[in-house]
Amino acid sequence: MLSIRYVQEEDQSFWFSLDPHLSKEEFLWKVAQKRGYVLLDDQMPVGLLRYHLFWDQIPFCTLLYIEQAKQKRGYGRMLMAFWEQEMKERGHQMVMTSTRTDEEAQHFYRKLGYQEAGGLILTVSAYAQPMELFFVKAL
Hints:
The protein is built from 4 helices and 7 strands; from the N terminus they run βααβββαβαββ. β3 (44-54) and β4 form a beta hairpin. It is α+β, with helices and mostly antiparallel strands. 28% of the residues lie in helices and 37% in strands.
């Protein structure tokens, strides 16, 4: 049975197994602010989604990740739909996300109805990467 719930402190080891980019302080903030979700399959965590508010007002999905062995089963789509519905219920009219041009996720987001909204090229050596594509979706 599949279920989705807010991230909890007890999820820390699972969370960091999929998301090594988040600091411990930021993880605890996500827990306190309920800005992260864990997807469970038969009570076992298999995926996560975290977000923040772009310009302090637009929900921005900063990471969606499903364990490798569980990918391509609709879990990512389920997490996104859950998040989008919650954001709509909170009164938001739009959501955002992004992905690099060299990642396959851009095709996933387009299938979910997200529209490309521009890109960002980071050239500072510590942050240099392929172009980051931004996507928006009206709710």
